[in-house]
Design a protein that fits this description.
The protein is mainly beta and about 325 residues long. Helix content is about 0%, strand content about 55%.
Length: about 325
Amino acid sequence: MGGGGTGPGAHALAPAAVVASLPLGIPPTLLAISPDGSRVVAVSSGQLSIVRTDTNAIAATVRVAPYPTGVAITPDGRRALVNNLSSARLAVVDLVTGTLLPPIGLVVDIHPGGFGRIAVSSDGRTAYVTNQFKEYLAVVDLTAQNTLSPSLDMRPSDVTLSADGGTLYVTGCKEFCTTGTIEALDPRTRELQRSFSVGPGPYRFALSPDGRRGYTTNLGGPTLSVLDLTSGAVVATLPVGVEPSGLAVSSDGTRVYVPNQAQKTLTIVDAVANAVVGNVAIPSEPREIVLSPDGRRAYLSTRDALLVLDTQRL
């Protein structure tokens, strides 16, 4: 994804809002945060950094394959799962010791590569890994360390589990993707429960804490779609910056944050009013964002560093 200006209406990032700036490896940098908020995992090209959130310091680094495409942390906070552009194996990192564990094979019968976003079940036993180019979803048994690969009827860009684990949301494109698609699947059987239409070229998907709203960033907009998952209606379509590459919803459901990589902005949305309340200019291209459980800290990966931001001062 390329560079660009800050865009109209963006105000400068206040110095007081930057709690820390941590240099990382070669971008792009993907992010995940542990359920208790104690660690942020930042995966750059060839390097995984484990960041302690109490000190805002890098506790350890681990060498991984270049060009990461997905990262997730298991619910117990002990392991990170990572894949990359060309691999057919899921790398496993012990976050306590900072060491690599044996990898898990994703496929054995086709040419490697194409794996992307990762979601992990609440019991930590199963991981779901998208493969956009081959149009399927790898279902990984993390205990037995084996994988199924059921086909999809779409090119998946993201995968998300509901908080109760009862619904698997797969986001992606069918045909030319002038309209994006979200499919709600039964995670045990992978049977389709319901499908929803969103904006063009959906890239990221996130749920509100109560599971009643879904949010997608749409590369073809560039927009943010707000979806009522009960009725299936798109209740709002909000403008964001060019290449909305990240997405996070606060734990109280009141704020949505969208980093716009090419626009070099961070869009802040009032999720109650479904309205954009601010655009913050970011000095270097922002890519991904994760939030602390209390919502007071945002961790934003950029081309140059991992920024730790005070959300109250944005």
